[in-house]
Amino acid sequence: MTYIDYMNQFWRVASVQPMPASEVALYAFLINECNARYWKMPVPCSTFYICESLRMSKQTVMTARKHLAEKGLILFTNGKSRFLPSEYSLLELTANLTHDLTLNNKNRDKDSIKAQTSNSHYDSVSVKNRRRAVEVHPATAEDYEAAF
Questions:
Q1: Number of domains observed in the structure of the chain
Q2: Is 55 helix (H, G, I), strand (E, B) or coil?
Q3: Containing H/E element for 35?
Q4: Whole-number Å distance between alpha carbons of 110 and 98
Q5: Is residue 31 part of a domain?
């Protein structure tokens, strides 16, 4: 995969599973490191170096990488010391992800449609304009003729 393929894959996942800025920054940082090392994975990178580069705390970096691994975007092994840093690999998602994302979107759309229809109250006499929250009453000529 290319640099842009990894980023497109990331944004597809992010569109379904929102991510905090720390995860976005870490993933972009790891892609840049992999690119700088000619995509030879796993890429060794110390947690201290990541923290300094991204201006994040160690706990934030560790949480972000754990979440990225849970989402199937990266694979990492913990470093054992300063001289044996953590190693990171970028993962390529399978076609099943696209299917799962589509199902998640369909379910989410169904839920939002149900919520909209359950909140709206329609009857034959008045229709509520949902965008402006204004009740619309249809007028007939009989309504105006009775006053004269």
A1: 1
A2: coil
A3: helix 21-36
A4: 18
A5: yes
